[in-house]
Amino acid sequence: MSVLSLAWQTVKARTSGFIGAFVAILCGTALVAACGILMESGFRGGVPTQRYAAADVVVTGDRIVRPDGGDVLAFEHAAEQPSIPAALVAKIAAVPGARAVPEQTFPAVVVGQDGQPLASKPSFGHNWDSAVLAPFTLKEGTAPQANEVVLDSGLAAEAGAGVGAQVRIMTRSVPETYRVAGIADAAGRARQASLFFSETKAAELAGRPDSVSAIGVLGADAGRIESVLANDHVTVSSGADRSAAEFEDVSQTKSLLAILAGSFGGYAVLVAIFVVASTLALTVEQRRREFALLRAVGATPRQIRKLIGVETTVVSVIAGVLGSLLGILVGHGLRDAFARIGVVPDDFALSISPIPLVAALLIGVAAARVAAWSASRRPSSINPVEALGEAAVQKRDVGKVRLAIGWVLIAIGLGATTVPLFLGGQLGAAMSVMAALVLIIGLSLTGPRVIGAAVRVIAPVLARSAGVSGYLASANVLKNSRRLAAAVTPLMLAIGFAVVNFYSQTTLTAAVQQQTEQSITADHVITGIIGVPAEVAEAAKQVPGVTATSLVRTQVITASRTGDSVEVQSRPANGLDSTASGMVDLDVVSGSLDDLQPGTVALSDSHASWEDKKVGDDVEFWYADGQRAKLKVVATYRHDLAFGDYVLSAADARAHTNAGMDSAVLVKAADTIALDALAGRYPGLQVTERVAAQDRSQERTQFLLNLVAVGVILGYVAISVSNTLVMSTAARRREFALLRLVGTGRRQIVRMMRTEALLTVGLAAVLGSLVAAVPLGGLSIGLIGSPLPAGPIGVYLGALAGAALLGLVSIAVSTRLSLRAKPIDAIGSRE
C-alpha cells in the first residue's frame, strides 16, 4: 500500500481527528484569499466609467511618485490629480485618426437662497466641449455662452431649473448668477452632478493657465497614445481604468485597498500560520499512541514523518480549495463593511481572478506542511523499545530549540514595546500590535514551561479547596501542562490581540485630540461645505481687530533611502500663513513660523532629526499632486500629531490641490459679528469654535477600519479557540470513561472540567492582559504621558468576558458530549 493510499485511509477512518485541522486551514485560507481579492481589486477593480464612457483613451497626470535611484519598496500614489499641459492636446491630435478633447474639472455647486447645495451628490464644473466624452447630449436648449451654463438633467430636476432660469453657482468665490442655456442628458446613473460652461469661462474658473485636467481621446487605442506620450510623465488609461481618472474617490480607493489588503493580509497570514500550526500540533500530539505502535512494529522515523506530511497535504488541499472559494464571499463581505464606513464607494466592484485564490491555496498548504513537519519531529523519533510506555505519559520538558526560539521572540517583543516611546503616530500604534503578536508567539512556544510553573503554584490550592473535583483537576493540569498550554494559547491570542488593537487606536486618537487642543489657540474657525475660498482669509484680515490665517489640510510624499532600497511614504501635512503664530502653537524648537513664506517649510522635530535637517537646509519631497518640491527649512516643531511632519505655506499647499481652496480659516477676534457678516457672503460658510479646526473624520474612518479588520481576524481566532478546546476535550473520552469505571460520578467529572476550564480562562486572561499591557503601556507613555491607555474600560472587560464565555462553553459542551457514551464502550474505543 502506498503512503498516499495509507494516508487517505487514515483520514477517512479518523475524520473526527482531522476536523480541527480542516476547519483551521479552511478559515485561514478563506481569510487570506479575501485579502488577496481586495489587493487585486486595488489594481484592477473600480466602477463603470460615466463621464468618459465614449472616450477610447483618457490621458491624465501621472499620480505615481517615482524617486530617482535605488529599489523602490512600494510606489505611492499622489493624493491629488495633477493637471497636464494643454500643449499635449495638439500632440495627441497629430496621431492619425485620433480626436483629442481637453477637459477642465473644478468645484462648482448650485446653491439655493439659503446657501445650501441643491445637488444630492458631488458637483463639478466642466467645459462644454468635453460633454462629447460621456456623451452628454442636449435634451433642451443650446450650448452655453459667456455667462450661461448647461446642467445635467438630474441636477436641473433637483434645482427646479429649466432652460432660461437663473441659478446661483459657487466655485472658488462668492456665488455668481448664470442663465441656464440648456439641459443635457447621458445614459446610465450618474455618480456626480455636472455643470458645463463655455470654454473661456471654464478655463477662467479652473484657474490653471495653459493646463487641463484631462484629455479624452476618441478614435485611437492606448498603445498608440502611450508611444506618443512616452516622455511626458502622464498616465494613459483605457477600459475599466478610465473610472480612476474620472472619479477621485475611485482612484484613492484603489490605492488604499492595495495598501490595506497588504497590511491586513500580512496579519491574516501570520495569524493563520500560527493557528494552523497550533491546531496541527495538537492533532499530531493526540495520536502519539498510534505513532508509538507504528514505531514498535518497525516503521522508521522517515516513514512516520512522510505519513503525517501526506495526511496533512490531503486535508489541507481539500480545505484550501473550499477555503479559497469561501474567500470570495468573505471578500465581498469585507467590501460591504468597508463601504458602510466610507472607505470604499458603494458601487466599487471587486476584481476576482484565479490568482489570489491559487495564492491563498498555496499559502494554506505550505503553512500546513511546515506545521506538520514541525509537529512530526517528536513522534517520529520515539524509541521503538520505549514507544508504548512513552506514549502513555506526556513528556514533561519542551525541546531546547523551541524554548530558545520562544525566549528570543519574547525578548524581541519586549524590545519592540519600547519603540512607541520614540516613534509616535500610526507607526507607534502598529508597532504595539506587532509587539503583542510577537510576544504571543513567544509565549506559545514557551507555553508548557510558563504554564507548568503557574500550575505548580495553583494546583495545590485547587487540590485543597475544591474537593475530589479539584484534586482531579489539579492532577490533570500538573501532568498535562502541554495540553493546558494548547488550550490557553488561542484564548490568550484572542484577548491580547483584541485589547491591543482597540486601545492602541483609542490612545492614538486621544493623543491627537490632546495635542490639537494645545496647538490651536485661535478663538474661532471658519469652515465650509466644499471648502473655504482663499479670498476669505484675506478679507478677514481686513476686518478691524481680527487676525486670521489660512489652514490647508494636505499631504506630502517623502522618499527615504536605506542601503540600496528607497521607501516612499505619504505623510499628513498642513498649510499655514506667516501670520499663524498668533493662532497656533506648534511648540517650535528652532526657527520661527513668521518666516513661513512660499518656497519654505517647517518640519517636525522628530522628522527633521531622522532626515538630519536643520533650519536653513533644503528638503526635497513631493506635493499632494505628485510635483517635486525643494524647499528651505525655516522652523522645527514638536506638535506633529496635530499638524503632521510638514507645515507648508498656505499658498504652496493650496496650489497643489484640485480644489484650490482653504480647508478652514483660523481667526483671533473678540467679536464675531463682523465674521458672521463675512461668512454670510459665501453660502455654506460658518463661524464655529476652534475645536472644529482639525478634521477628525479621517481618524474616525481609520478607527472603524481597524475595528472591521480586527473583527474579522478575531472571528477567525474565535473559531480557532472553540476548535482547539473542543478537540482537546473530546480527545479525553477514554480518560473520562476510566474515571467513571473506577467510581467517579458524572457530576464530579463535569465539576473537574469546569475547574480546569476556569483555570484555562483565568490563565489566558492574565497572560493576554499582560501581553497587551506591556506594549500599550509603552505606547501610552510615549503618546499621552500616562501608563494607562485611553479608552473605555468596558471594551477590555468585554474582551475578557467574551473569551471566558467562549472557553467555558466550548469545554462544557464537548465534555457533556464526551460523557454521553457508556464507559465500557468509550474505554475500548479507538483514540
Automatic annotation (TrEMBL):
Keywords: Cell membrane, Membrane, Transmembrane, Transmembrane helix. It is found in: Cell membrane. Its main location: membrane. The chain crosses the membrane at residues 18-39, 256-283, 304-328, 348-372, 403-423, 429-446, 484-503, 703-726, 757-781, 793-813. It comes from the Bacteria. InterPro entries: ABC3_permease_C, Membrane_comp_ABC_pdt. It is a multi-pass membrane protein. Residues 264-384, 708-819 form the ABC3 transporter permease C-terminal domain. This is ABC transporter permease. It comes from Lentzea sokolovensis. The lineage of its organism: Bacteria, Bacillati, Actinomycetota, Actinomycetes, Pseudonocardiales.
